[in-house]
């Protein structure tokens, strides 16, 4: 929950000079740049980036088509608001709000049915990594979304243990897990982004790693100057 409407509009306007290159404020891929503001700022950010080549994204989507789900926002509503991509299964929703693989799958289905692109977030906690289960956990999360071929989807690897904990994921950690994800899906063309505390001082080195196709930018996307250093404007 960051940025009120005015701040989101200003940040989006400052980012609207980005060329379709390799990243996103909250999402980055080899196919371009996407900005994912909070629901309350989707309209003003959409206006700010119109005609810029940036893609408007959302941070989440409801698992249901429609109905009595107070507070939820459906995939159809997002499309109606001009959104083209949605983030599903972010670590903060999985581990902070108890979102399960089954719920993530339903959200991917709803997004795909509405014609939205999907950024599927996967990643292990510190306890899971320390127990030697990192690859097992990430493989389970990827396998839970069984119809990758029917939904325009790419994957973002978030090492939960390296986000705001003081622990640091190495470039080799990123490279090796991306390779494992690609082998699990058996799709060389799959776009895999890295999303573990991406900052201006590590973004270039991360993108230089084999198999790292883009970046999922969190805190660094809240400041236009910081984001500009990650994604040259």
Automatic annotation (TrEMBL):
Catalytic activity: D-glyceraldehyde 3-phosphate = dihydroxyacetone phosphate
Enzyme category, top tier: isomerase
Pfam families listed in its UniProt record: TIM
GO molecular function: triose-phosphate isomerase activity
Record-linked Gene3D superfamilies: Aldolase class I
E.C. number: 5.3.1.1
One GO CC annotation: cytosol
Protein family per UniProt: Belongs to the triosephosphate isomerase family.
Assembly notes: Homodimer.
This protein's name: Triosephosphate isomerase
């Amino acid at each position: 929950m960051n940025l009120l409407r005015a701040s989101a509009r200003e940040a989006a306007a400052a980012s609207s000079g980005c060329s379709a290159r390799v990243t996103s404020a909250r999402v980055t891929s080899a196919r371009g740049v996407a900005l994912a503001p909070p629901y309350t700022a989707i309209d003003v950010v959409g206006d700010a980036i119109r005609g810029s080549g940036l893609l408007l994204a959302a941070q989440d989507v409801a698992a249901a088509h429609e109905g009595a789900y107070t507070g939820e926002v459906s995939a159809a509503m997002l499309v109606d608001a001009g959104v083209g991509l949605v983030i599903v299964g972010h670590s903060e929703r999985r581990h902070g709000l108890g979102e399960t693989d089954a719920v993530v799958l339903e959200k991917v289905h709803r997004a795909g049915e509405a014609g939205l692109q999907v950024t599927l977030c996967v990643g292990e906690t510190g306890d899971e990594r320390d127990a030697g289960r990192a690859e097992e956990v990430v493989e389970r999360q990827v396998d839970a979304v069984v119809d990758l071929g029917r939904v325009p989807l790419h994957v973002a690897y978030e090492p939960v243990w390296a986000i705001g904990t003081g622990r640091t994921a190495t470039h080799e950690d990123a490279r090796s897990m991306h390779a494992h994800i690609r082998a699990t899906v058996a799709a060389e063309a799959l776009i895999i982004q890295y999303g573990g505390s991406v900052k201006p001082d590590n973004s270039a080195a991360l993108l230089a790693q084999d198999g790292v196709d883009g970046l999922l930018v969190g805190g660094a996307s809240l400041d236009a100057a910081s984001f500009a250093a990650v994604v040259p404007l």
